[in-house]
Amino acid sequence: MNKPFSIVSMQIDELKPSRGYERLVRCRDTTTGLDALISIHSTKFGPAAGGCRMWAYTRLEDAIYDVERLSRGMTYKNAAADLPLGGGKSVIIGDPDKIKTPALMRAFGQFIEHFNGTYYTAEDVGISPNDMAHAAEMTRYVAGLETGEFASGDPSPVTARGVYLCLKKTAEVRLGVNNLSGMRIAVQGLGNVGMALAEMLHNEGAVLTVSDINKDRLTEARSRFGAAEVGLNDIYDADVDIFAPCALGGVLTPDVISRLRARVVAGAANNQLSTPDCGQLLQQEGILYAPDYIVNGGGIVNVAVEILGKTDPEWGERRILGLVDTLNTVLTRAAQTGTPTNIVADALIDEKLERANG
Q1: What percent of the chain has pLDDT over 70?
Q2: How far apart are CA 187 and CA 264, in angstroms?
Q3: Of 101, 228, 272, 281, which sees the most CB atoms within 10 A?
Q4: Active-site residue, selected from the candidate residues 89, 100, 168, 169
């Protein structure tokens, strides 16, 4: 890491966070075009950790809503994975294909350094390990790097493996199957995680239906996995056993839930429920929902190895398998009490947070 330099064009402002959040900070740099937000939801278990998303938000309010929602999700995700980390998130406002440059990422790195170790970042939508390497020139509080003593690299394959294992557990509980051979599975979104998940499902003999905005990814899925391609909006109507949302969040709306033919929902996307009440709607439709922040926790486990400097190769593996155990606890409690799985999962993590308040 280089010593952070002073960027005179950089302005950092403390904004008022929503109730229950610790900090919300905005950084603007006219030289590089950086306009970024960092939300810290909680540091009760340790420094906040959560990736950086780059997206062309049309309004600042939309970016704030997203970064806060995602940072809260990271608190719950890290707690569910039994990690000594709190929850935070960052977003960079702008189209990554148009304005992202090494200089912008270095400026973002200096913004991270401003938090002096209370927030660690890594990759998310629109950000690559190479981008993080540029940010790391300005700060030590970056993970998901491809080089370095504890480098963990792209967390996507580990995220996908956690999703795969949790999807199998949910299918076992709802569908009574111990393998996925012949299971009809719809994968929405073929990014790094979705494509890796699709490969694992295909290798076990699942029959795949896929959708994505990227035509090249669809072509790859058809070629490699024999997947059937459907339109972006048609994926919800697919005649499948399992629906795996692996794109952006908020897709499980009342309308979508009424259209789903799957009996299991388990995927990699963050914040899949458009509102908490949608958990109840899924339950009413006889659909077993695997809470997303448990299912997709593999990536942050991978990143935590780097943040915490773990050298034991089994440390991360135990926590990946622990995600399945946590999910099983949630599914069991939900069945015993008749409570939606998202409510049970939140209550489980809230218990942990209350104990931390001590």
Answers
A1: 95
A2: 12
A3: 272
A4: 89
